[in-house]
Design goal:
- Helix content is about 5%, strand content about 70%.
- By secondary structure, the protein is mostly beta strands.
- The chain has a single domain (about 20-200), classed as Porin (Beta Barrel), CATH 2.40.160.20.
- A hairpin with a 4-residue loop joins β6 and β7.
- The two termini are about 25 Å apart.
């Protein structure tokens, strides 16, 4: 937590005016590789407020869906924020960064009616908080427009929720489980995000 503040306090001490203040709006698409079953895909939006030459902040919302063997659907809603730390001073097209953040999320897994006569719907959901850490880079196309690519590992702090598929006599069945009972469990997955961002104005 102190690392971003340390970098921020050391930058450009001789300058009277702190660099920063840029406000950007952006759209994003995300691929989420869950520990259970297949990957999910989604979309969202974000805005960024740059605090200094080496520090940027990102405030985002995501909606991610996943098809589980055509038997169930997983939906994830993320609302959170991140700090982007630029460790290198560069004037090239690429600006790499380290990203660390936190979010609140809601996950719901529900079965899909596949036309079976004895279909009995199942559904489980959970609220949790999550932290994430990763790396990324800005691809600066113009002074105001960039494309960002990042990879992060997200750890959810809360009840675990997952779907197990069983096959018996040629028939597949799915069982949705929610574990934890209020106790702390760790449920992690990898996020790959691509976003486009445009600078609207300077806040200061």
């Amino acid at each position: 937590m102190l690392f971003p503040l340390f970098l921020f306090s050391r930058e450009n001490k001789t300058k009277k005016v702190r660099e920063g203040g840029a406000f950007q709006l952006g759209l994003r698409t995300t691929i989420s590789s869950f520990n259970h079953n297949n990957s999910g895909t989604g979309f969202g939006g974000q805005f960024r407020i740059r605090l200094g030459k080496r520090i940027n902040t990102e405030w985002y919302a995501d909606y991610i869906t996943q098809n589980i063997a055509d038997l169930a659907k997983r939906e994830d809603y993320h609302v959170g924020w991140s700090v982007m730390i630029y460790p290198f001073q560069t004037k090239s097209t690429l600006t790499p960064y380290v990203i660390v953040g936190h979010c609140f999320d809601n996950t719901k897994i529900s079965t899909i009616n596949t036309g079976i006569s004895d279909y009995h719907p199942q559904s489980e959901s959970r609220w949790s908080a999550a932290t994430q850490l990763g790396i990324g880079t800005n691809i600066n196309l113009t002074k105001k427009f960039d494309v960002s690519i990042s990879s992060q590992y997200m750890i959810h702090l809360g009840d675990d929720i997952h779907a197990d598929i069983h096959e018996e006599e040629g028939m597949r069945e799915i069982h949705i489980e929610k574990e934890g009972g209020g106790n702390l469990t760790l449920d992690g997955h990898v996020l790959f995000t691509i976003s486009i961002n445009y600078k609207i104005f300077d806040l200061w």
